[in-house]
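Appendix B. Chain record.
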Amino acid sequence: MTNLSAIFNSWPGMYLVQSFLHSLIAAFIVDTALIAWRIESPVMRQRFRLMVLVLPIVSYPLYQFLSPERGSALFRLDALFDIGRWLNLELWGVVPVGVLFLLFLAFTAVIFVVQEMLPIAHHTLTPGGSSLDTTDPEPESRVTRALESLPGGKPEIFILDDEEYIMFSSTGKKPAVYLSGRLVEALTFEELRAAVAHEIGHIDRSRRPLMVVVFLLRILMFYNPIILMEFRRIVQEEEKICDDVAAELTGNRAALASALRKFYFADAGEQQHPLPNTPRLRDRIEEYSHSILIESRITRLEEPPAPAMKGSLAFIIVLVTIFSINYYLV
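Structure tokens predicted for this chain:
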């Protein structure tokens, strides 16, 4: 127990504990604000969720810089919540809560490595992983006409020789959109146009390195399960933002909704949650959550767009509230 207390009372230990606690409180306040103010804009929702990512990284060193006495026993007595008291408890007089807490963070770190870092490393290190069997679309094909009918810059577009429904975009100096031949055949002209516009949204937003910065922050907080969930929510909002970009470029929200339904649910038949066909529980849960996300995007596109809301005052109020409350959580 003495060694455990020494860990949590050290600077790294206090940062570890308080960054988790501060992210938990920030996530609760942000979610409450989004519901209370009925903020539906994915751009605004993403900005709010970024607070959960950024503030816990800087809050502990900033608080200690402003008030060096904040870590003292006297301050802890007057604090709103002292997590150290709970970490020093023993369940059934045997298992310290602090040990379970560290195991929980370690488990989150393993999930981060397995689900996020290893696929990136595998893709980067695999020889020939970037080579694709592609062809250029015919000059008068539906693909070419769909691309040319969209305003703004035109990325390159390629057709993949694949029988699966595939569509993605690459960024960089030469951005491009890739579609499988089967998907092109399945989509109508308007659906194809909307799908290409969605990928153009990703390409345009890649020029603002927001998601790269967000992922770097995610790496810094690799042990934090709250940041893991919030990072995925930010990525989900990014998809909705690109949905709005596509709707603005095409003026046809219904076409994108229809394209999403064909793209994600064509092989599922009448049942849009093919859980019995998925062998492992983890895969079944991921399949179900992914289906729920896609359905929410489709429903959102099929409904009238929500009125624009700046939310600047709400953002400031939430920011000040998080900083003020977390100061008294140690």
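Further analysis of this model is presented in Appendix C.
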